[in-house]
Design a protein that fits this description.
Length: 140
């Protein structure tokens, strides 16, 4: 459904950045995840951002925090957090913070709504910086 894997990136937490993770990570094809996505530096950037804290708060008020890896990917397993929707999301790193304007209403795969290009059905990529700034590169 998503097309072939990149031969340069092995299966695992760094693969398929920017794609809708829960298409495969439903427990049948791959390890089940409840929430997953990729965070980029800027709206028009393809540069992923590691070490971004992803704050999730569900309808019950249950909070969970995870962080992005070197591919900008983050993911949550069901045993750690299974949100009741709607869910609020805030991301932050190095004093920069973005809060999602609307709640997530039932889809834990960020790239279903946050596609590569903004348009009538998408706000575009999830990104950290809305201003010109330089983030320290923390990945090899």
């Amino acid at each position: 459904m998503l097309g072939p894997e990149s031969p340069a990136i092995p299966l695992g937490p760094l693969h398929r950045a920017g794609q809708p993770c829960l298409v495969c990570h439903d427990g049948a094809e791959a390890t089940e995840l409840t929430v997953a996505g990729t965070i980029y530096e800027r709206a028009d950037s393809t540069k992923p951002v590691p070490d971004v804290l992803v704050h999730l708060v569900d309808a019950r008020g249950t909070a969970y925090v995870t962080a992005t890896n070197c591919a900008g990917n983050f993911f949550v397993r069901p045993g750690d957090f299974s949100p009741e929707y709607p869910m609020r999301v805030t991301i932050e790193r190095d004093g920069f913070r973005q809060e999602m304007e609307s709640p997530v209403n039932g889809e834990g795969s960020c790239a279903v709504c946050h596609t590569t290009k903004p348009g009538p059905r998408s706000a575009g990529r999830v990104f950290l910086l809305s201003v010109a700034a330089n983030l320290e590169d923390r990945c090899p």
